[in-house]
Amino acid sequence: MMYKNETCEAVHYAEACAGFGAARLAVDEGFVAVFRLSKRYRRVIDEGWVNTANHVDVNVYGILPLELFRQTGEDAFYRQGMELADGQWENPLPDG
Predict the structure, then answer these.
(1) In this structure, how many other beta carbons lie within 10 angstroms of the beta carbon of residue 74?
(2) 3-state SS, one letter per residue, for 5-58
(3) Residue 26: closest CA among 72, 93, 87, 95
(4) Averaged over 36-44, what is the pLDDT?
(5) What whole-number percentage of the chain has pLDDT above 90?
(6) For residue range 53-69, what is the model confidence (pLDDT) as tens digits?
(7) How far apart are CA 96 and CA 93, in angstroms?
(8) What span, in angstroms and rounded, lies between the C-alpha atoms of 58 and 51?
(9) Res 94 pLDDT > 90
(10) Fewest Cβ atoms closer than 10 Å to its Cβ: which of 6, 45, 53, 65?
(11) How far is 74 from 87, CA to CA, in rounded Å?
């Protein structure tokens, strides 16, 4: 599910939250469930889906690749998640 408007295109935060919850549950289901989730969200990396806005509503997607990295050890998920997390601190508001 993509978030699209005149200023932003990215994976929608609802997709991120649903995927994160599924990833946490997949641990209990075993390798096959984790593999299916990682394959689904690996598309975001492989197909070059972009995050065109540095905003919390789209950067929250970073929770999912970081969780998938934790479960799979795939560096691509780590890099993607950290890029989004680091982006939150690029231009902070004066009040933090």
Answers:
(1) 15
(2) CCCCEEECHHHHHHHHHHHHHHHHHCHHHHHHHHHHHHHHHHCCCCCCCCCHHH
(3) 72
(4) 89
(5) 35
(6) 777 778 889 999 999 99
(7) 5
(8) 7
(9) no
(10) 6
(11) 21
How far is 44 from 79, CA to CA, in rounded Å?
13
Q: Compute the distance between CA of residue 62 and CA of residue 71 in angstroms, rounded to an integer.
A: 14
Please tell me the pTM assigned to this model: 0.83
DSSP tag of 12:
-
- For the record, the structure tokens of 34 come out as 């984790």
Give pLDDT tens digits for 4-34. 778 788 888 899 999 999 999 888 777 778 8
Side-chain half-sphere CA neighbours of 63 within 13 A: 17
- 66: tokens are 């970081």
The length of the chain in residues reads 96
